[in-house]
Amino acid sequence: MLAGAQPASADAELSLTKSSPSSVLAGEPVTFTLTATNPGDQPEFNLSFRDELPVGVTYVPGSSSPAGAGEPTIVTNSVEDPPGSGEFVDQQTLIWKNVADLQPGDSTTISFQVTLSDTAATPGARSTSSAPA
């Protein structure tokens, strides 16, 4: 997951977490939850989330919650999987822009569903998250 914010100050900081079930079945919907918390003493404005899904994981349209976050922009890139194999597959990145402003101590959460293809069941597969300030 990648989450980003336009900071209110040059020393902005956010705490980010991504949660999901510890085990899932291919083809079944899975709920991911992204949470950003402002532990600092300055407000953060225009918080945006960016989540790079693992290969073989696909966003379920209309599953974003809260509804006020809207649907993400979906960017699809071709990536080599496994690396060095010469075989390329699509990988989705989800982007929600200007989701919230966070006062010191506040948190905001976005939940969404994905489905996993049979090929997504790679042990140890990871997704990435960050919060560019």
TrEMBL record:
Residues 1-24, 59-86 are annotated as: Disordered. Residues 14-119 form the DUF11 domain. InterPro entries: Chlamydia_OmcB, DUF11_rpt, OmcB-like_DUF11. Coiled coil: none annotated. It holds the Pfam family DUF11. It comes from the Bacteria. This is DUF11 domain-containing protein. It comes from Paraoerskovia sediminicola. The lineage of its organism: Bacteria, Bacillati, Actinomycetota, Actinomycetes, Micrococcales.
